[in-house]
Design a protein that fits this description.
The protein is mainly β and 180 residues long. The chain is built from two helices and twelve strands.
């Protein structure tokens, strides 16, 4: 575990970043505080190995997944982006048009979920399939990674069936407690 230092303000995290070039005003919530403890997460993003997505599309979906996590104030370590933008969902056991519109489907795991073998599924809604402008998010209760979909495949597939996006994300939540 490294240390991120801004003058006398310390943020414990998983990476080490030097002082040079860091502005003090990017953390307005720490003014007057001598020490703050907050986790900076290294996030791994995954897609279905067979997903036919361009690098640009993957990058856009990763950004959307990040916005979805931020909106829910989650602290994910792993994000499985299960779909491209689509407008259907399962309601009362049947596939149908989602009344909230176009979205991606993704699953998140924080440290607790990784230990327990569980995840939370979310929809990240957008204004349109072309703009990918984030609008809102919904989520489901926590469920086991072994939960089977209608095609008898686990919701969170084994690593051998996932493509790990090569560009990890790093971010921090300094604006309040984790929402459950």
């Amino acid at each position: 575990m490294g240390r991120f230092v801004i003058d006398n303000k310390h943020i414990t995290n998983n990476i080490t970043i030097g002082r040079s070039g860091v502005r003090d005003d990017w953390l307005p919530s720490v003014a007057g505080s001598s020490t703050i403890m907050s986790t900076v997460n290294r996030v791994k993003y995954f897609f279905h190995k067979k997903a036919k997505l361009s690098e640009e599309k993957r990058e856009a979906l990763v950004r959307l997944a990040y916005q979805t996590a931020t909106a829910k104030n989650l602290y994910p370590r792993m994000v499985f982006i299960r779909s491209d933008i689509h407008d259907t969902t399962i309601i009362n056991g049947r596939y149908q048009k989602d009344p909230l519109g176009d979205h991606i489907t993704m699953c998140f795991k924080d440290d607790e979920h990784i230990r327990a073998g569980t995840h939370i599924a979310c929809h990240g809604y957008v204004d349109s399939k072309t703009s990918l402008q984030f609008r809102e998010t919904t989520d489901t209760p926590e469920k086991s990674d072994d939960t089977l979909k209608r095609n008898d495949e686990p919701v969170w597939p084994p690593n051998s069936r996932l493509y790990e996006y090569p560009h990890d994300g790093y971010y921090s939540h300094l604006d309040g407690p984790k929402k459950k």
